[in-house]
Amino acid sequence: MLITVSTTHRPATDLGYLLVKHPDRAHSFEMPTGTAHVLFPEATPQRCTAALLLDVDPLRLSGPKGRGGKGQPGAMPDDFTLGRYVNDRPYAASSLLAAALAKVFRSALRGDSKDRAELSATAIPLEVRVPVLRCRGGAELADRLFTPLGWAVTATAIPLDERFPQWGDSRYVDLALTGTVRLADALNHLYVLLPVLDDAKHYWVAPDEIDKLLRAGSGWLADHPEHGLITRRYLAHRRALAGQALARLAEQRLVEDDPEADTVEPSADGSGADEVVRKPLAVERRAAVLAALAEVGATRVLDLGCGGGALLGDLARDRWFTEIVGVDVSARVLELAERRLRLDRLPERQRGRIKLWQSALTYRDDRLRGFDAAVLMEVVEHVDPPRLPALADAVFGHARPGAVVVTTPNVEYNVRYEGLAPGVHRHADHRFEWTRAEFTRWATEVAGRYGYTVGFTGVGDDDPQVGTPTQLALFTRAETARPTEGVEK
Asked: What is the pLDDT of residue 484?
């Protein structure tokens, strides 16, 4: 069975660095079911193609020690004795090819590249070809699975016999994908979806397959419109395992869900007409926070109230930040952040940059002292107003980072959200939402009390009547200043 990955990124031979395979050599790897070969049929600065060829030995698939034997997924019926020797497994892409991808391109799947670290985090033009893929559901299912991930899909049904078109199509398709995607994302898409399309696993499906699925599906599976079908098929229709996986995906969506991250913004007059598709507000907000951190030159950063780790992921991808600490009061949320960041799969040096600590932000914590900057992104509005002085004391008075970035909703902008009733907060857990004047007053008082200066900016479209949907304050510490006396605790 065969799969090829091509790029026209210049120089295209950088694909070899990303895959950690030299284009001038042929590479071979022993697999439980045969031998995997990696070679580069073309390698020029204009275009480079890597091919993974899995040579399956049918004898290794048979017998009590082989995969697909009696009682194993993919086993042939007892009344078809030759089935274990005469089958499509050596030729059609399946979970066997996905397993080869995981072994042969392990570093690339993690997004690691010692020589091209920046490129590994960049979306590049890619073409993927799987010339023979068993596809239970046909070309239409392949399109449903890959198109939401940003791929242009061409899935051509392979006829049973070209000489006899009246016989119709076979169960196989010739799959071609094109798109501008991170190589690591592309490989993880294939790792999950090849066995899903085949709808068979040719090895024993144990509970640890849930972790494999969620790691490979990090960042895309939870929001995929076919996540239920993908989960059930990947876990070989084992109901208990699929139920556990779907529950964990639901937790991820709950933590990562941001009702302000609308992909459609209302019109300037609030009528909802002339809507335009735009970048999600949550993405713009994280970009604004990163810009503020760059402005103050912070390299050691606290993400206070880090939640599921969306900002932590952005910080971790930028090697400028040498120490990153996510803090949250919820242990369950920190576990989700750990899985999202895939800390168990990071190299030791990268893993050493990132820490996750459980702590309440309204109490003093000595571990939080001495950092260049702290971020409170969409956090203050989740704190009961009587506890805000304690939050300010713990962050600005005790931890005293060199800079603090605070973002919070602008309640004046809520009239621009269709379907949001007057007086209703954007999120059910918000204890309050400030106007621009209220936020300015609070931030100015905190800055004066604890010896900081503060500047303000907006995030998102700037409406001439109600301002931006998110407001941001950047506090910078005056080195000689000290908190005033009589601070509320």
From this structure: 53
